[in-house]
Write a structure and sequence with these properties.
The complex is a heterodimer of chains A (about 500) and B (about 325). With about 500 residues, chain A is α/β, with parallel strands linked by helices. Helices cover about 30% and strands about 25% of the residues of chain A. The chains are: A alpha/beta (about 500), B mainly alpha (about 325). At the A-B interface, helix 2 and helix 3 of A face helix 8 and helix 9 of B.
């Protein structure tokens, strides 16, 4: 291999948070004009490592070299000055400000928004971005916000770009667009580090792959010389199977009957219109759709959390008697065995309390049980231990505040708790959002186990590859309407993608 | 019928303390610090000015002709700014550096500030040994209340626009400057970003801590001037304990009323000043004094109505700074 001078080098970097070691003696090299994928399970310290580069965290030990010179990055400003730009997983944007204001934020000099807006337009033209500099951030879609983040970094003249799970919030089409942009930037000589959990993206976009496991640097590969299987095995530390099973449904019976469901949000905008379907026991019904097409409202309407304009939601007993859920309170619906686990983008928003520890969060589900005036702490603690063990949650103990766990681990706690409540209907949305491959498969297996136990599962997902492999039937939502229901075994990804944007999959002109 | 020619100037002088208080509090809140200590800080600003001018008057033997006009104004002004800056610093040290709860700290500062004012006010009253429970600093007050000589000859125009002491005009200037600062300057943009989303500001290389400290201390100094204006101009230099009343809380209510816009606060303060004394001007008849007391609720009722209207409109720009009241720690997970 030819001699190249690295543009960035980290040597023996260690970072601790209290007792938790996030990065342990990590060394990493990045060359100009290459895309390096950083691969690792949740909590393996990828984001922490990148935050060290962007000046958010300061390493406890180790050295960083940029273009051969040793540097100390003690604040985000130092990081900009070294031409390092990071696009965070949670966007660092001020909602009530305009695109331009956000982009010039933190820069020195006189404030000239008109000039800045013109410069931004020029950058957009050069790289093919579509974004209006005068638009307010809260009016933008997720993918537009990400574009703003990238423009922001380019506006500052960054040479080294770090992207933390950039595709987690994008539709497949948007991801393709993003990759085209990244390739453009690579051609222009920028060095890029990308964190992603999606193996096909790693294989698609990266030149090299570096693997972290439990905070340690394991090894790196040239992408063309390795396989997804090899990467995954190294990441997890043992051999894993990459196939999702789809056992045949056993004795499916109608469990949930929904007809003509129509829901308006607080502003009076229709979020669901005339949605009808049946969910059967022992079957996984997938819900596909662009983010915000009514997935959340659908699940919340079933769980009794969302007022319904009109329509029928019936729970059907084993002996076939229907019972309407519309007049029941969320607590009664839960008692009937309808369980909802919704993983919002910020993960902590629904269902878990950040400052409470694992076993206390388990108690949120069970505190109503029992007759004593004192709460039962023993069973939730046992459940917490079980979830930690089965889902391999990496936590110092079950008495650690949930807030302190990494995102993926938080999610395992949430999904694990919902599944443990032994439901008859399991509503789950974005259960694997942001989870690494190994953890995702653990969740798929858990869901399949519930399926085998005869639970009717409604699985809202974003990754079409997974939906097609896991679900028995897939309902496609488009702007609050049912665009169609397809059979999971014969479904075609492109066809579903089309149905997500046009009701009934009406073909493009 | 209301006599507008006397009502408007009265409304303005009622409004000036509120103007200072709300402008200071807006700057503070824009940094994400909900400083409920403002009422106390205004008390401290007032009593610091009173102590300063008391000592200066004493040193001059209490005779106005011995007093230098510049010093008579500068000494209380500096004492007031110093006292309220220290209070702002204390608030910041507790909430930003030690990350104490902002509400609790703010309320404690208010309790402390009011007590501090009453303690030293009471002591000064004892010192002078006066018959009434108040001290009069009329010599100093006259310097604060000096108006343009031409004002009296200009009829209604002079009465409405030119009849105030310099602190009243300064309040308007500060309000407008604060508005320009927030809207048009880079530092203003940074300050807003700190209050909206400190993590974003931090990642953009803005020092969240120094912005919070500076905004809060400067905001406190501005608020403190409101206290000084009240004693020296509005009350003719007469300090009596608790006379300042609930104006500090009204200033905080005004911040919400103006939806965090200092320029609006200039007009809104005068409006509130008017509402505050409206009960004196509304014809109620002599035998209906209870109704008069009810009229005193007007400013608070208007605040509640505005709160309801702004929350109904649900516009993102009219929401409080998003991280208002929340501590920020960079390495928090």
């Amino acid at each position: 291999m030819e001699e190249r001078t690295p543009i960035l080098e980290m040597r023996h970097v260690t970072k601790r948070f209290g007792n938790i070691i996030a990065n342990d003696d990590v060394s990493l090299t990045l060359y100009p004009g290459e895309i390096l994928a950083l691969l690792g399970e949740n909590g393996s310290g990828k984001t922490t490592l990148m935050n060290i580069l962007s000046g958010i965290y300061y390493p406890d030990e180790g050295q960083i070299f940029v273009e051969g010179k040793e540097v100390s990055i003690s604040s985000p400003k130092d990081s900009f000055d070294l031409k390092i730009g990071m696009i965070h997983q949670h966007f660092k944007l001020v909602d009530v400000m305009s695109v331009t204001e956000n982009i010039v934020l933190g820069l020195p000099g006189k404030l000239d928004l008109k000039q800045a807006a013109a410069d931004i337009r020029a950058i957009c033209e050069r790289y093919g971005f579509e974004v209006d500099p005068d638009e307010k951030i809260y009016n933008l879609s997720v993918s537009q916000k990400q574009t703003v983040e990238i423009v922001k970094v380019l506006f500052r003249g960054a040479n080294i770009l770090i992207l933390d799970e950039p595709t987690a919030v994008l539709t497949p089409q948007e991801a393709v667009k993003l990759f085209a942009i990244l390739r453009n930037m690579k051609e222009a000589g920028h060095a890029i580090i990308i964190i992603t959990h999606k193996m096909h993206e790693v294989m698609d976009i990266s030149d090299r792959v570096a693997i972290l496991r439990k905070g340690r640097y394991i090894t790196s590969f040239v992408t063309t010389e390795t396989t997804a299987q090899e990467l995954t095995d190294n990441m997890v530390g043992r051999a894993v199977s990459l196939n999702i099973e789809r056992p045949e449904p056993v004795d499916p019976k109608d469990r949930l009957f929904i007809q003509g469901l129509t829901v308006k949000n607080e502003e009076g905008v229709y979020k669901l219109r005339d949605v009808s379907f049946t969910a059967r026991s022992g079957e996984i019904l997938g819900i596909a759709g662009i983010a915000g097409s009514g997935q959340r409202e659908l699940l919340e309407a079933i769980a009794g959390l969302q007022p319904v304009e009109y329509g029928i939601i019936n729970y059907i007993d084993d002996d076939g008697t229907p019972e309407s859920l519309l007049k029941k309170t969320p607590v009664e619906i839960q008692a009937m065995g309808v369980s909802l686990s919704f993983v919002p983008e910020d993960r902590l928003g629904m269902g878990l309390v950040g400052n409470m520890d694992l076993s206390e969060n388990m108690m949120l589900r069970s505190y109503r049980e029992g007759h004593s005036i004192f709460t039962n702490r023993r069973d939730p603690a046992a459940l917490a231990r079980q979830v930690v063990e089965e889902l391999e949650v990496s936590t110092p103990s079950i008495n650690t505040a949930v807030r302190k766990l990494s995102g993926g681990n938080v999610q395992k706690v949430l999904v694990g708790r919902e599944i443990a409540s032994a439901p008859t209907v399991l509503l789950t949305a974005y259960a694997v959002r942001g989870l690494d491959i190994n953890a995702s498969y653990t969740i798929y297996n858990l869901i399949n186990r519930q399926k085998a136990a005869g639970v009717a599962i409604v699985f809202v997902g974003e990754d079409l590859d997974v939906l097609v492999e896991l679900c028995d039937r897939i309902l496609v939502l488009c702007d609050g309407r049912v665009s169609g229901i397809v059979d999971g075994k014969t479904a075609d990804k492109n066809e579903i993608g089309m149905m997500m944007t046009h009701v009934g999959g009406a073909h493009e002109g | 019928m209301i006599d507008w020619l006397t009502f408007i100037p009265r409304a303005v002088i009622q409004g000036v303390p509120l103007m200072y208080g709300s402008t200071g509090e807006i700057l503070t809140e824009k940094s994400g610090n909900l400083n409920l200590g403002t009422p106390g800080i205004m008390y401290v600003g007032a009593i610091s000015g009173v102590i300063g001018s008391f000592l200066y008057e004493q040193s001059c033997g209490g005779a106005a002709e011995n007093m230098n006009g510049f010093l008579a104004v500068a000494i209380p002004l500096i004492c007031c700014l110093g006292g309220s800056a220290l209070m702002g610093l204390l608030y910041c040290f507790l909430t930003v550096t030690l990350r104490a709860n902002q509400n609790v700290t703010g309320l404690a500062i208010t309790t402390f500030g009011v007590g501090f004012g009453n303690f030293f006010g009471g002591s000064l009253i004892k010192l002078t040994g006066s018959e009434v429970p108040s001290i009069a600093l009329s010599a100093t007050s006259n310097f604060f209340r000096a108006t343009l000589p031409a004002a009296e000859n200009m009829g209604w125009f002079g009465q409405i626009f030119l009849s105030y002491g310099f602190l009243a005009y300064l309040a308007i200037v500060i309000g407008i400057l604060a508005s320009v600062f927030l809207k048009r300057t880079r530092r203003g943009l940074h300050l807003r970003a700190v209050g909206e989303n400190p993590a974003t500001a931090d990642a953009a290389g803005i020092s969240v801590t120094s912005y919070k400290y500076l905004a809060t201390i400067i905001g406190s100094m501005i608020a403190g001037l409101g206290g000084l204006y009240y004693v020296m101009d509005y009350a003719n230099g007469v300090w009596s304990n608790n006379a300042f009343g609930d104006r500090g809380w009204l200033a905080i209510a005004l911040v919400i009323f103006t939806i965090w816009r200092p320029a609006v606060s200039v007009l809104a303060s005068i409006l509130f000043g008017g509402l505050y004394i409206m009960y004196l001007y509304l014809p109620t008849g002599m035998d209906n004094l209870a109704v008069k007391e009810l009229y005193r609720m007007i400013p608070y009722i208007v605040t509640i109505i505005v709160l309801i209207i702004t929350s109904l409109r649900n516009k993102r720009e009219s929401k409080p700074p998003e991280s208002l009241g929340l501590p920020y720690f960079r390495e928090d997970r």
